[in-house]
C-alpha cells in the first residue's frame, strides 16, 4: 500500500507557507548578497524558528488525519518522510525565490553560490522540520488520546 501522508488532511495555510518561503528567500538573499557572517546568524535563527513553528502547528492540526492514515496502514517512516518532503519543498521554493530576488536586485549569477544557496534553503527547512516530523511519526494509529 503506497500511502502519502503529506497529502493527508489540512494543508499548511497559504499565508504560513508564503511566510516560510519569504523568510528563506531573504536568508538566501543575505547569503548571496555577501552580508558578513555574523549578520546572517540572526536571520538564520529567525528563519529556523519560523519554519519550526509553522510545521509544529501543521502537525498539531493534522493529528487526527495522521492517526487515520496510520489506521489504514501508513508506517511511522512514511509519516516522517511526508513531513520532511513538505519541508524540502518549502526550502526549495524559498531558495529559488531568494535566487530570483538576487538576480533581479543584485545581478549576481554564480553557479557555486546558487548551488550553496539551494542547499542552505533545503537543509535549513529540513533541520527546522525535524522535530515536528518526529512528533508526527509518533502519533499512534488510534489517534490522540482525549482526556476529559
Automatic annotation (TrEMBL):
It is a multi-pass membrane protein. The keyword Membrane applies. Keywords: Cell membrane, Membrane, Transmembrane, Transmembrane helix. Coiled coil: none annotated. Residues 50-141 form the ABC3 transporter permease C-terminal domain. InterPro entries: ABC3_permease_C. It comes from Kibdelosporangium aridum. Pfam families: FtsX. This is FtsX-like permease family protein. The chain crosses the membrane at residues 12-33, 87-106, 113-134.
Amino acid at each position: 500500500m503506497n500511502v502519502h501522508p503529506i497529502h493527508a488532511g489540512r494543508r499548511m495555510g497559504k499565508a504560513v507557507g508564503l511566510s516560510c518561503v519569504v523568510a528563506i528567500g531573504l536568508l538566501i538573499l543575505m547569503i548571496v548578497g555577501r552580508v558578513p557572517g555574523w549578520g546572517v546568524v540572526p536571520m538564520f535563527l529567525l528563519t529556523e524558528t519560523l519554519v519550526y513553528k509553522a510545521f509544529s502547528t501543521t502537525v498539531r492540526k493534522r493529528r487526527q488525519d495522521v492517526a487515520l492514515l496510520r489506521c489504514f496502514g501508513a508506517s511511522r517512516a512514511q509519516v516522517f518522510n511526508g513531513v520532511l518532503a513538505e519541508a524540502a519543498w518549502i526550502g526549495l521554493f524559498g531558495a529559488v525565490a531568494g535566487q530570483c530576488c538576487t538576480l533581479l536586485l543584485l545581478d549576481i549569477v554564480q553557479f557555486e553560490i546558487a548551488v550553496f544557496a539551494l542547499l542552505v534553503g533545503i537543509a535549513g527547512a529540513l533541520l527546522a522540520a525535524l522535530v515536528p516530523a518526529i512528533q508526527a511519526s509518533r502519533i499512534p494509529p488510534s489517534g490522540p488520546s482525549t482526556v476529559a
